[in-house]
Batch of 4 targets.
Target 1
Amino acid sequence: MKRENSPSGDSSESRTTASPAINDVQANWQRVVRRRSFLHGIGIAGAAVLPAGKLFAQEEGKSLSKSDAALLRFAAAIEFVEADLWQQYNELGGQVDHNDNPNPGNPAYIAALKNLDGDMPQYISDNTDDEISHRDFLNAYLKSKGAQPIDFKQFETLQPTKAAGALGNGRLTNLQKLTVDTSWYFRYRSTQNPDLGAKFPQLLNIVNQPAIPLNNNYAPATIQAIANIAAIHFAFIEQGGSSLYPVLALKATSLEVLRILISIGGVEIDHFSLWHDKMGNAVAQPVAPFSDPVTGLTFPDFNNPASQHNAMLSAADQKAGSQMFQTNLIQPEPCEFLSPNLPACSIIRPTLSPNGGPMATVQSFIADGLFANQNPQFLEQLMDLASEAEAARREGQDQ
């Protein structure tokens, strides 16, 4: 497991990467509702309120176009993947288990996560619920429209960790040897935009490292390093969804499909904002700085001016100085948008397919190591779904 790791100048583009019904939905939804309390009846004084569903009533009973079905099938596939990985994180570090009972989890892992934020276990359980609800809703909606839902259960064959707290069932994703892209950290602090050609180096070089405990009785520094990797990985996963859903929405023909994609996509952005904040605590006092000899990882305090340098940053980003490293700078910095000739704008980025679309999303998961040791047939199915979503076009959209 040991690997020399330190703040790295490797870019995400050049770094070497790892190779390779409805009843159930209702039951899961009721479980989510029991855990969450929602505010109802929020309105604006003087505003006219349309009857519920009126705007989209004309779409009831209609079948999906081929393109819209491809978009939702791919979204469901990604949510299937995310639900699997979040369930693993929840087993070991969540507040409640899959039956909504208090979760014993892995005590050392939970303690290390709480060093980052005392509410980390609750946030993990909530995020897990959200991804399950996305997966189940999308599949139920597809079935209601006569389209084929997504089911990867046959590929849940990867062995779970042997650490205390993990269940014994097979897994779809592999969290035991990740190579985590951290270039997004600079991307959201930069005034430059990847959709206009900007490139960003890695904040940290996390290569072939576990994001969950593989066994028990780790030294304090090692379990903290693993928890830090997890927090950074949380943000990596959710920033991907933040970009993917706008890309899919731009291809939608049906207003109802557009509504689905922007509604779920907004939650992915919310997740990213949360984890962007929490992962910053992995590279700030009082947790950082520290090094772990077992993983070989070093976590600097990036609020210390002595650690605020990376020679691989562009000249413009180097000129920005501490802005590129400051850990509490979690709101997207205004950047170029559409054209360098327009004023900078605070946005989610990227929102074009080459960097944030279906194929880019799958490729990023493969590079992450999420599918290490997976059946090649699974990857073929996932790539086919991505290809179909890439080819989807809104009716009347120019090619």
Target 2
Amino acid sequence: MRLRSTPLHEVVRAAGSTFQAIPPPNPQKAVKIERPMTSHEPASLPLNQVLTGDCREILPGLPEDSIDLIFADPPYNLQLEGELWRPNLTRVDGVDDDWDQFDSFTQYDQFTREWLTACRRVLKPTGTLWVIGSYHNIYRVGKILQDLQFWVLNDVVWVKANPMPNFRGVRYTNAHETLLWVQKEKGAQYTFNYHAMKGLNDDLQMRSDWYFPICTGGERIKDEDGEKAHPTQKPEALLYRVIMSSSNPDDVVLDPFFGTGTTGAVARKLHRHYIGIEIDEKYARLAQERVREVVQLEFDPPIYVTPNPRRRERVPFGTLVENGLLEPGQQLWFGSEGDLTATVHADGTLSFNGQRGSIHQIAKEIRGGPANGWKLWYYWDDLASQREVIDTLREAVRQESSKEI
């Protein structure tokens, strides 16, 4: 195998967990926000650092069950043979680096099994892992993931808005890559910020086909010669969605193939900790320089945390009656317009057309299908001289309750 690696004794020592690491960002170049380390962050973790070496050798030195989220963009084993030329006779700068060269599928499979096994050890039981690949490798990676008892949550297709053409004209243009999202333990609780994803998608459920352009222009990291530094740099928008969906502020995000640091840059922007592992010293230096330039704004929970309605304080409809916000015998309208009304009872139920039940049951009978009574029943507001949805009363109770706390 031609994959270059740093000798184990130079990277990690079992006693003391000494890493060959690039220092964390310079506080003079970025706003450093000091916040107490939460209990789920082991003190021995090299947070916000780039560790130079082979991830298969470095990962055993990290604490077991310590990482919240892993994003991996491993070598694809593209198996390119010979040079590729465009129709205008310019050469395509493809992936021909040593780190993407393997002598056989067997060798690649062994490499994949080793790094995934090491990742599984450090991932928390509640943690998840994302891995991205192309048709060259993703099916082999997927099998090994399942062999190692990871549980597949989703496969996501990254549809490239501006893919590289198939210059030889002998195949379809390869216009997508596949991401596998898996959890460590089947059935365990894991992080999925469903409402944040809906917010990013104009209040529609986020689908598993994601449209992003490939990384070009100003976002593309250049080397000292002005050439693209890394052949497979991923767009920040892709990592933004992955990290936003699958982690929370203060979580630890690990990338075992850090490249030029896209994962770390996005993690800092979203107030997550990162740990990057990169075998190539040049890439590691470029990554640290990039992350150092990221300005991390002051943490403000309402800005970085999407409220989850399911986790909010439960307020039964009867609480509105108990607190005098609605009175027994009062009429509620079904909808902001129309004449259908129901009567409020002292026990917090409603009656309509001879039937008695909760705000949801009566609304379901009227609609003939699932119904959220909080959004469908209206009361008369004397101050506004109009109907108002009863959910506004529930919010008033919640706000008053939070003041008391």
Target 3
Amino acid sequence: MIEDCRLKIDQYSLGSAIKNLQSSIFNDLCYLLQSNMLSDFNGVVKKGSREESLLASVAWDRLPRHVAIIMDGNGRWAAQRGQPRIAGHRAGVEAVRAAVDTGARLGLQALTLYAFSTENWKRPRYEVDALMRMLRRYLRLELDEIDRQNIKFQTIGRTGALADNVRAEIARATERTSKNKGMILTVALNYGGRAEIVDACKAAVRRLTDEGSRPDEITEERIANELYTRNLPELDLLVRTSGELRISNFLLWQSAYSEIYVTDTLWPDFRRQQLLQAVVDYQGRDRRFGGLKLVVSRK
């Protein structure tokens, strides 16, 4: 009996020691991870700034894998300054730079930007042409930096409808960064969430037919495998600027269980601080995916 007790005590002590060791190793790894991540912001974040404070609040082991942004407010930003809408779009390019740079330094797996919707063709021709020129200019000017940061560039949407010179710039950027292993930067162009689901369903039915199966054997998994975003992680965080409380036909399927963060900041004023704030807010959410968290009552 005494020997059995001693054996159990020894086993308990060994188990406790292993748990303590595992906890110590985990804490050390978290510290190293945090140190490495913070070092990526050296020289770009000022000491004592709001950005530094937010970085200190980031839980590096619980980053969202995939963040998408509805870039809204360019027109209002320009109107507030008595300038044409085009000026707002031009100013928004700096916000794109800030979001891409911050996402890459954070170590996000994917960042998706809503640049041009299927409905945007309804805008004046001069505005559409200006947006396409800015896209081409952005890719030409930023491609070296995107490649340097090991970012993989791609687009989603019905890009076949875009002008030849736009598609040529897209192809060049996609090809040059195709082997990069860092964050995947996806730009949604001529994109609509409903159109994507229609395209995915058609592709899934064609695949079923080719396999000799019936169309009514279609499943959610089959549709998901045909989405434009099939090579991306599940969407964790959807950010919208300008304070509007709608998702504007963007990533309708993917946002089913994503967290939504809305900021009143207009897109041209969006910077590193706003993206960090969105990430910190996301990490404070309790994600249940339709389930309930078991709460043990202690009396």
Target 4
Amino acid sequence: MSHAAGGAAVRSSEASGWTARALVEGEARKWLRRTSDWVDLQLSLILDSLRRVAPRARGRLLDVGCGDKPYEAIFRPYVTEYIGVEHRDTFELTSAAEPVLGDGKRGPDVLYSGNRLPFPDHCFDTVLSVQVLEHTAKPAELVQEMARVLKDDGLLILMAPFQFRLHEQPHDYFRYSQHGLRELCARAGLELTHVEQQGSLWSLMGHKLNSYLAFRVAHMGGMAQTMGKLGHEKVTLARPRYWTLPWVAPSMLAVALGARVLDRVLFDPEETLGFLVLARHKTRNGALAPAARSGESS
């Protein structure tokens, strides 16, 4: 074999080795992300709820407070256009605004000042807002703005926390019951057609315990951001405490499993992480818009 042929064979072998390693690392990364999402009880509940209601979305969708659009893949099959809008000042403080930590995800299509949404009246068929309402000092005005840009027969998909740790400080102002969300929507001329509780007592306790283990004990915030999570938080610079993982990781898995089981067998309707609600415009006579006859119910 000539030197040239031998060199080519070595390069081909090295390239194959790099490709194989990249595939293994990619699969390991996906497995780690799926496991992390399963342990994150709040995120799991959010994703499950959004997947259930996504088929009701249609047409042009506006994601208010979209961050790096983590829910776009869930809604894309059902809508013709997915537009994300963010408050400029608060978004620029989050890790989602950092290209290195963005994990290749898309950011907002539009940035605005936080006052009036930069869109004309009645121009979206679906408006989505997930875990954003607690971060505005004027939540009633934001809901009114979402109602303004929503078409008369459009659907608002709104999710907000009832109990959750302080985050995105100092822009963390409120927590919401289903009654509070109903009142905010009513003031904007909207009526709830569906209410969904996000877990129960055990998911709430499990999520708080796992958050403490992850962020206070193991310092895993930065690691989570490198996987594309916690885009709503500021960039975390603390180094992970890898030496804690041999006991922290199994503990978190056990807590997540126990919480899921107990939520099924000992459900508490008065304790929850948050609520998802669907809302539609009322007509002038107080009835719901015709599109609400699609089977939605409180």
